[in-house]
Amino acid sequence: MPVNLLTTSLPWRLSSTNSDGEVMPQRTILDLCLHDSKTVTALHNLLTQERKALEERDAESLESLLGSKNSLINLLNESASKRTQLLAEQGFEHNREGMKRYIATLSPEQSEELSELWSELEEGLESCKELNLVNAKVLQHTRTAVDRLLTIYRGSAAKSVSLYGEDGSATRANEHRSITKA
Q1: What is the largest CA-CA distance in the chain?
Q2: Residue in 182, 181, 165, 162 with CA at minimum distance from that of residue 173
Q3: 67 in any annotated domain
């Protein structure tokens, strides 16, 4: 049964300060990952809304969604920068292996919780990437259709139509051909 890490109580987070009261990196990294998980969920929902707006060709909604999407992506980028800095301060690279090595240094309870959260975050980001690629394809398809309509509307369709010559190679409709080669 999957654990909803956004609502799971993490008691060890409260005791993650050193004797000087400074926040320890594991708490900050966990907090960043928790925040990122919420941000990724919001981004996933937004990308789903974007897909619907693209399908409905709702330009007003798309404009609003684009601003929100950029804000969420900026939040994720800022968080990634902070995580990179925290991991580097602890001597770890900011990549999948560096995070795994960092998680391995934590207590078993911390390791399990952060490992599950990190996996959830990676899966969420992958899902957002896939949704974004689908949206890009829908947008490109729409753009192509609009370009074709504009070409027809402007009356320049005949100039851009490709035909095939006697040797099977593509030729433009407006290229001069002799009647004998028709």
Answers
A1: 94
A2: 162
A3: yes
Domain presence at residue 170: no
Tell me, what DSSP letter sits at residue 162? E
Number of domains in the chain: 1
The DSSP call for residue 172 is E
In a domain, 4, yes or no: no
- How far, in Å, CA of 84 to CA of 78, rounded? 10
State how far the Cα of 178 lies from the Cα of 182, in Å rounded to an integer.
Answer: 7
* In the block, residue with structure tokens 């996996």: 119
Structure token digits, residue 82: 């902070």
| Rounded-to-integer distance, Cα 108 and Cα 127, Å | 28
Q: What is the pLDDT of residues 84-138, one digit of tens each?
A: 999 999 899 988 899 999 999 999 999 999 999 999 999 999 999 999 999 999 9
Q: Comparing C-alpha atoms, which of 100, 113, 122, 103 is closest to residue 6?
A: 113
* CA count, 13 A, side-chain hemisphere, 11: 1
26-45 pLDDT per residue, tens: 778 999 999 999 999 999 99
Q: Range of 45's domain?
A: 11-154
166 phi/psi in degrees, rounded to 5: -65, -25
Query: Do the Cβ atoms of 98 and 14 come closer than 8 Å?
Result: no
Q: Does residue 123 fall inside a structural domain? A: yes
The model carries a pTM of: 0.70
